[in-house]
Amino acid sequence: MRNRHLLILCLSLVVAGGSLFLYKWLDLGVPLKADNAIQAWTIEARIRFTADRGRPIKLRLAVPVSPPGFGLLDETFVSHGYGLTTAQQGDEREAVWTIRRARGEQELYYQAVAYPKPRDQVGDSRPPRPEQPEFSDAEAAVVENLVQQIRAHSADIATFAAQTLIRLDAGSNSDIDLLLGNDDSDERRAKVATAILATANIAARPVYGFTLRTESRRLDMQTYLEVHNGDRWLLFDPRSAAQGWPRDFLVWSRGQPLVRETDGIRNLRVEFSAAENPYQALAAARQRAAERGSVALQFSLLSLPVQMQMVYRVVLTMPIGALLIVLLRNVVGIKTFGTFAPILIALAFRETRLLNGVLLFVGIISLGLLGRFYLERLKLLLVPRLASILTIVVLMMAALSVLTYQLGIGAGLSVALFPMVILTMTIERMSIGWEEAGPREALQQASGSLLAAALAYLVMTERQVQHVVLAFPELLLIVLALTLAFGRYTGYRLTELKRFRALSA
Question: Is the CATH number 2.60.40.2250 carried by domain 39-119+265-278?
Fold first, then answer.
């Protein structure tokens, strides 16, 4: 009876998960392969602030328009209860959110979908003559002297701009310090360079944007300097003065800063994140689902904010890693320290990378085991002993991070990402196994855990696996069915075939 109940449950899970998967794949056309479409970037701006009670709220924020090297496929504004308008003037575009009354914490979202394309090399229209900046008498004297020096050491507008940035990076100098003040950021350098170039009647402007990278849960705003040479705009790094467009750099706004105006707002925070997603086939699938009135994609994980998608790309692969551990333990016969320890260690490998993670794991476990053997001689109770081992593990991790940093080994800085409690329990269980079953058994379990963690890491970080579980999370029902089915497996394990070979003869 129990076997029949389990069989019916497993079949029901397989049918439910498989049916929804086939419907989304074959009928709605959700892409099965991660590269079965244009690889587009979903960039999200999350705006949070506290509303001043009793005051109207107005927020002006720059939004991208025709960024060089990218095309915009779609954009979405999420601002329930707010009035929204957009305005564009030349290369500048902004969104304006307004509301008469609001209370407490507020949250707005802007999301754009951009895809890479060849950078347009066609000459731009000539910008208007730059306005002359206002300087104090001391600043004006410094700028006039700088312009004379730069003009003597430059041949054209491009070299004039590069020499300007080089002068601003000339180290400790009272004249440069006067212009920069106490701000040595890239944004300040770009603004000062823009003002200096304007005095020489050269059009320039700061450029704000991001370098897009895979799984960028948090993007940092970068500032460059754009200079018009009479034919087109040239881009310069404000710190190194290098000319050229960085790879995968998305221009968000030009000229003015990101936030243009705020009224009735306190504690403003703007966070950016990005994710690389297949767009073309997925967009077609969403359109087809909307035409048929299907909610299968309306409530898809791909409709979540980008930061949540990044979280679920990792979380949804954990059941697959757990199934792999089940196969290794119950079918192959590899011994490990439990089920969750290898999975959590595999998650830590995502940051340290596999080889570095294996070396760090072996080193910490070895040193921790020596400390555990010493504590055994003190005859401590279980809870104080575990607390002591945890303290030793934390101290070793801190010391290892400092040591590797001083030696210039960046991988050691990721050691803090290892699950400390799991390492503590692994050391404890390994020492107990060493005492009860001998060192061979303990080393087998430790090496088995490390092997399982390495294999789980390879599976869980596979880009195709992450795409499939994010687009088709219903497939985890099939994973659950397989896990339940292997829960009743009582046959020989592969490692036991050699051990019991005589019985089968």
Answer: yes
